[in-house]
């Protein structure tokens, strides 16, 4: 009986030591951090981490349970973007939501894990732009708020979570560095004023030579202007109405200082161009560069997370007959919200 008594007090002593050590010497707050250098600008990295909807593209846990279930809520990018999951023992169940987002600098998410109490943890993606590359840190923070058992669990957190964070950052590096690098130096965002224009609607197949179609349209306009003593108010432009299946429907237009038209004008009309915010791209060189320029415009719109607000138009800023082809300037405008 005395032996059991000694064992009881010994066990009680060990329990007291266990809780005393946890209370006085172990921290409530635990942080795990891993870093990597990604050879892409900060905006590329920021877009990849600023969405819970796309987290599994580089998550270190996505392959651990191919049968896991995921639900997504909130916006695709930014604050309130959310992912919930239910998986096996390795993946568990939980939810993470973006609660802070500073463009090209930081994204912070709040995490809840089933079976680990009611309080949240936090994951922060810190991005430092170093020019053509970025230093990226993935930081996990937890606050156990006096829970002694969780404090002991926190002692193992770096060894358990650190390798997963390192693997995730490597996945992120592979994902981001696989994306093409664009030269957006010719782009700007401007507020444009409306212009009065004379225009004629026409169309053509962009797989064929468009010079005849455009030449006929602008000849019709200039002949009408000459016959009616109307002066140019700016350089010619082409306003897109639709572009499907290689058929470009557009208005060939010339700015004028007119507010009304009188008499029979045939198919020549007076109108106004768009006024408001627009992306502007300066294309320098042959008109044949148009397809590549519009592809670059699409990439700029997507990477800048802009919303279109109508169809684009082109301004032919100089006379191709009087300059080398390499110096031809075409100003491409895309209305945005």
Automatic annotation (TrEMBL):
UniProt key word Transmembrane helix: yes
Domain AraC effector-binding: 185-337
Entry keywords, A to Z: Membrane, Transmembrane, Transmembrane helix
Residues spanning the membrane: 6-26
SMART domains per the UniProt record, alphabetical: AraC_E_bind
Annotated signal sequence range: none
The protein's name: AraC effector-binding domain-containing protein
Record lineage: unclassified sequences, metagenomes, ecological metagenomes
């Amino acid at each position: 009986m005395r032996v059991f008594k000694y064992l009881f007090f010994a066990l009680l002593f060990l329990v007291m030591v266990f809780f005393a050590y946890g209370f006085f010497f172990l921290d409530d707050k635990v942080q795990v951090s891993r870093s990597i250098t990604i050879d892409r600008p900060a905006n590329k990295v920021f877009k990849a981490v600023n969405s819970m909807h796309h987290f599994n593209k580089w998550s270190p846990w996505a392959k651990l349970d191919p049968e896991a279930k995921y639900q997504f809520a909130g916006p695709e990018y930014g604050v309130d973007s959310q992912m919930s999951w239910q998986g096996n023992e390795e993946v568990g169940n939980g939810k993470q939501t973006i609660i802070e987002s500073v463009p090209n600098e930081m994204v912070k998410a709040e995490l809840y894990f089933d079976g680990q109490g009611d309080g949240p943890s936090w994951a922060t993606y810190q991005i430092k732009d170093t020019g053509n590359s970025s230093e990226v840190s993935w930081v996990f923070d937890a606050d156990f708020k006096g829970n002694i058992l969780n404090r002991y669990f926190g002692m193992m957190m770096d060894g358990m979570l650190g390798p997963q964070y390192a693997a995730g950052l490597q996945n992120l590096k592979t994902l981001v560095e696989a994306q093409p690098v664009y030269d957006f130096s010719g782009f700007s965002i401007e507020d444009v004023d409306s212009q009065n224009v004379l225009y004629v609607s026409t169309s053509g197949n962009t797989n064929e030579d468009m010079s005849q179609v455009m030449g006929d349209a602008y000849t019709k306009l200039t002949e009408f202007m000459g016959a009616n003593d109307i002066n140019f108010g700016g350089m010619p432009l082409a306003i897109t109405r639709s572009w499907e299946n290689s058929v470009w429907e557009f208005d060939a237009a010339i700015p004028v200082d007119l507010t009304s038209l009188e008499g029979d004008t045939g198919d020549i009309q007076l109108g106004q161009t768009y006024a408001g915010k627009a992306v502007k791209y300066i294309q320098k060189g042959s008109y044949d560069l148009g397809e590549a320029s519009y592809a670059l415009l699409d990439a700029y719109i997507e990477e800048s997370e802009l919303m279109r607000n109508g169809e684009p138009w082109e301004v032919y800023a100089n006379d191709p007959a009087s300059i080398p082809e390499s110096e031809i300037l075409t100003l491409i405008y895309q209305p945005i919200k």
